[in-house]
Model the fold of this input.
Amino acid sequence: MRAALADRPAPAESGWTYGAPVSTGGQDVVERFIERAADYRATVVRVDAGAVAAAVSEALAAAGTNTVVADDMVQTRWGAQVPVSWIADDGLDAATLDGVDAVVTTATLAIANTGTIVLDHGPGQGRRALSLIPDVHVCVVFVDQIVTDVPEAVARLVELGSHTRPLTWISGPSATSDIELDRVEGVHGPRTLAVIVAG
Done:
């Protein structure tokens, strides 16, 4: 490669170093996250921290769900205020999870510039299968969990000790496209993602 490019001008310096802070374009990080997550076709609402249960209820109703799986933390915090049939995850197999309408989780963090949510599957998030099999995922993200960019997210995950756990990075509903670029949603995970930004 060097020999083939020997007579070409030297490339310009990029002026950027990995790990250096990345601007959010003058936008507040929360507003940037909301904008970017919506770009990925997620439904995003921002509510006060005390209105999370009502927002979860509205998101589930909008998706037409009846049966909802969540871990104990989510059900303890908001379950009594959300009128659906809650299902506890006691090792439900994939076929049973496929018959559940929705899952409700919290998040470990979210990334403003990419509109990405990261789950480490600790309390509030359940095991990995919960966020991948049901057709609707309602995820609660608190404003203090939103970071600017991927390097900051990785640093926060290391700080939290989450980097040693299986992580799920979610950018919008599951989507793929075939050779003709026809978009298909729901192949590798939920086809509907509702994000509730709290705070």
